[in-house]
Design a protein that fits this description.
The N and C termini lie far apart (45 Å). The protein is built from eleven helices and 15 strands. It is 31% helix and 26% strand. The protein is globular and about 70 Å long. The strands form two sheets. Strands 1, 2, 3, 4, 5, 6, 7, 8 and 9 form a nine-stranded mixed β-sheet that branches. Strands 13-12-11-14-10-15 form a six-stranded mixed β-sheet. Strand 11 and strand 12 form a beta hairpin. The protein is an alpha+beta fold.
Length: 415
Amino acid sequence: MKVVNGGVCAAKGFKAGGIYCGIKKPSIDNQNPNKPHKNDLGMILSDEICSTAAVYTTNKVKGAPIIVTKSNLNKTNGKSRAVIVNSKNANTCNADGEEKALRMCELAANELGIRTEDVIVASTGVIGQILPIEPIENGISSLVKGLSYNGNEAAATAIMTTDTIRKEYAVEFEIDGKICRLGGMAKGSGMIHPNMATTLNFITTDTAISAEMLQKALDEIVKVTYNCLSIDGDTSTNDMVSLMANGMAGNTEITACNNDFEIFKTALYEVMANLTRMLAKDGEGASKLLECICTGCPSKDDAITIAKAVIGSTLFKCAIFGEDANWGRVLCAIGYADAEFDITKVDVDLKSEFGTVAVCRNGAGVEFSEETAASVLSSDEIQVLVNLNQGNENATAWGCDLTYEYVKINGDYRT
């Protein structure tokens, strides 16, 4: 397994691009008036038809693009060629939402010369505001003309809202003697909570794999990556992960659970786990990445539940922001997790690049140096190590601290 550049363009046969079409307000920089506006419309295109899998938000209120994408993938039995996505406007809770989402698919399909149902559509941004379709109609030709095999950065920029950095990751691996690549891009900074991780994520691969096995792999890996991510406890209306495989690597198609399938899942985990970590670190207003590693558990589900409870605790997130080793909040979160265990066997450590401090043994506090703890928590990446000492299963969950800046960002997000 080797990390490579290229994001969604790392795999053979994928083009991408992004433009500013006018959905976002023009950015004004008096010091640099020629500075380009931020992209707000992006696209991914495969040279060949792709086996496609997707997972969506569990929120009962679903964005119109999700409804249209689901319908398209049902019509094609899990096949697609392209993705069109906009930022700034979620196209959710609008009477004409599905009409606009379908129109985006039609615009893309007409310009690309493909079928409307072969297009995945996604939107992110403010909920409940009418999506202006005119900027997309006016910009679609330029977007398609600008597609390139190196256009991943422009596409990754186009999906950013309150994100402060692009989020891309890709790997190279071997299956059936063929070099395969798998890469992705993600957006998300706020309104993020498990089941389904509240973000937009697009992943591409040149591996030959059936739609059925692709969906199986995605369902398994999303459970231990994006569904173990929480920024603020709010599950978005527009969450989606799409995974496209065009088979251009030339390996024998994966159609069953075998060694090739395990290699593919390992690559998928590598990409999705790293994107999840990037999303957590770029949480709205965040100053610290928070990672809970729960080990010694009787079951995988218990490990996941406990790790998610810790990183989702508002009080513990505040303690991390204040660099206060208030480990009792960790025990409190573990205690209300819906899992079976003996609390009298639980150990907790706090760890960072500056060292490790033991704060709890056998479910009770132990003496520790507050000075050492403060040093450990001064890092911008903090690990909470929870060991139940009651089994062999483990899981990791990712989040961030809760800061004043989070309130500031969300206090006037719409206006």
